[in-house]
């Protein structure tokens, strides 16, 4: 792990791409898939993935095109489980179009770091903007590059858990 940043409620972690997938806990399978699409040191292309690759992750994914230099992303895909979890569909919309509080300034900085460094990033924290602090969201962001080096998209996988011990798909303890 390179960096851990935290505010009072959220944690943002930055990881080297060469860290073994087994170290990503609940995200091991999606990181393994992502790594399987990397060729040598090149980042994977979005078009390298097939729908069937994401069994077990359907609905929990989003894909965003880098929309600007300030860390904004336009979502080409916003999974159905995310619509249910967050109560909104951001397909075709930018992060900056979301309701106030949905994305914080550091979320945009986080995207800029991914684009600049090509790192894998994980963020976790409560859904305080919807007064659901009993729910914790866990998000991994994986860089994608059509030419293998210049990041132009980000693959997001999102899971959640609650203080009552329930989770979104039974995938973590």
Short account of what is shown:
The protein is built from three helices and seven strands. By secondary structure, the chain is of the alpha+beta class. The chain has helices at residues 28-36, 80-86, 105-117; strands at residues 3-6, 11-15, 61-66, 73-78, 120-127, 132-144, 153-162.
Q: Your description of this structure?
A:
It is a single chain. With 173 residues, the chain is α+β, with helices and mostly antiparallel strands. The protein has a single domain (3-162), classed as Beta-Lactamase, CATH 3.30.450. 17% of the residues lie in helices and 30% in strands. It contains 3 helices and 7 strands, in the order ββαββααβββ. Strands 1-2-5-6-7-3-4 form a 7-stranded antiparallel sheet, sandwiched between helices.
């Amino acid at each position: 792990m390179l960096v851990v940043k935290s505010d009072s409620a959220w944690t943002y972690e930055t990881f080297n791409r060469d860290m073994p997938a087994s170290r990503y806990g609940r995200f091991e399978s999606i990181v393994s898939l992502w790594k399987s699409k990397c060729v040598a040191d090149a980042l994977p292309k979005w078009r390298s993935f097939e729908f069937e690759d994401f069994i077990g992750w359907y609905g929990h994914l989003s894909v965003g095109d880098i929309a600007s230099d300030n860390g904004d992303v336009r979502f080409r895909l916003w999974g159905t489980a995310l619509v249910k979890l967050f109560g909104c569909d951001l397909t075709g919309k930018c992060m900056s179009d979301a309701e106030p509080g949905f994305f914080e300034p550091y979320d945009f900085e986080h995207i800029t770091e991914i684009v600049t460094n090509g790192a894998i990033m994980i963020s976790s924290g409560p859904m305080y903007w919807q007064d659901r602090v009993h729910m914790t969201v866990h998000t991994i962001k994986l860089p994608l590059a059509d030419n293998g080096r210049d990041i132009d998209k980000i693959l997001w996988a999102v899971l959640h858990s609650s203080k009552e011990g329930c989770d979104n798909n039974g995938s973590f303890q």
